[in-house]
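To: structure subgroup
Subject: Chain for Friday's discussion

All,

I'm putting the inputs and outputs inline so they're searchable in the archive.
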Amino acid sequence: MGNPKAFLTIPRKEAGYRPMLERIADFGEVEQTLNSEDRVLQASRCMDCGVPFCHWNCPVGNIMPEWQDALYKRKWQEAYKILTGTINFPEFTGRICPALCEKGCVLKIDENPVTIRENEAAVAERAFIEGYVVPRVPAKRTGKKVAVIGSGPAGLAAADMLNQKGHTVTVIEKDEAAGGLLRFGIPDFKLNKKVIDRRLNILSAEGIEFKYGIAAGKDLTTKQLLESYDAICIAIGAGQPRDLPIEGRQLNGIHFALELLQQQNRVVAGAPLNPDKLLSAKDKHVLVIGGGDTGSDCVGTSIRHKAAKVTQIEILDKPPTDYNADTPWPLWPNILRTSSSHHEGCERRWNLASKRFVGNDAGNVTGVEVAYVEWIKSPDGKITMKETGKTELIKADLVLLSMGFVHPVHEGLLNELKVNYDGRGNVAAIAPFRTSVDKVFAAGDALTGASLVVRAIDSGRKAAAQIDRFLKI
């Protein structure tokens, strides 16, 4: 620890966001960056704790004190080397990870943790700028061929690790470009897609083959897959959205969140789309049902469309603002989270259950009837929902369902392979990352259900280790 008193003398300093009126006029990244000197000072705040809870909280096990110290000493290349020893794509997680590490930082006790996530993004960007990130082509090939189906964070991590072991890796993607939800789910104002393309260029130069526009199980049969590859890794994500099957669901103007987000990302990318089929929130009263990150992304996108009003509702109680005694440090705190999109103009409401969609004679949605609810905790700790009897009609010309995802899509690849499912509909693992089908493995959200990008990367890394072990038998 280069400066043992820095956490006492240097306050936490975040880069912050671009001015609101500027950022809502485009889809450029909203987060700003600190200069190198400020970033070094922020790294100096790391206390090099005897028990680094930041490391304990991180799904991939990043060793924060070591690379923070290297950053403080201005050893940027060493910091990047340490960082990429545990995480494949710090330029992704440095932008969109919710930073579980910071919630475990000892300085979080005083609500001033080290700016670990921003520091990570800074190290990754410096590495690309100064040319530390170069293709690492394996010296030898094993002769084994692996198909990775899906190119989200889990699939890319698995492909990267397997390729470095010398196996010949082909990534098969149903969409027109790689990235999964990184590309087609997360808005450009949070993750510029050039950041993904830059990494894909490196992976391609290292020998990974990418095949786009191919639906495994349909365009490429499971028989062909099993005959052509020595191992298969399923990393298709949890793409089945949670629906809201209440009265009026058939009305026009009700869409799943990803319908809007995927479309908008393609618009920004300049993809040819039918203008008559584009979703637009312009001048509309938008109701986002679901209070998570995807809902927040819908809020930001709708505001950039120039919506008349954006409302986001959640069935659960409003979380505590700053501290929740039920989730004390170093646990992930269940508290109110306000994103940059919420700051841009959104009414947020809690304890509302959607009862029915209301429409006009033309078959278009005009509103949603909601019921006020309360959550009651019994003496044995069981929590139940109770309607209060009060209802309200919220005006809405566009409704976006953002209530999470239930499991991977079964139709097509998974059903054709005849893999087993667990009780929640995810791919079941009969051994670590191994499915019920011989030489077929699974990683990421397809295996665990919808989760975080950093957990998907961790899963992809671990699945790759199991596949490598299998191929060496």
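Points worth raising on Friday:
The mean pLDDT is 97.
The CA atoms of residues 246 and 403 lie 14 Å apart.

D.
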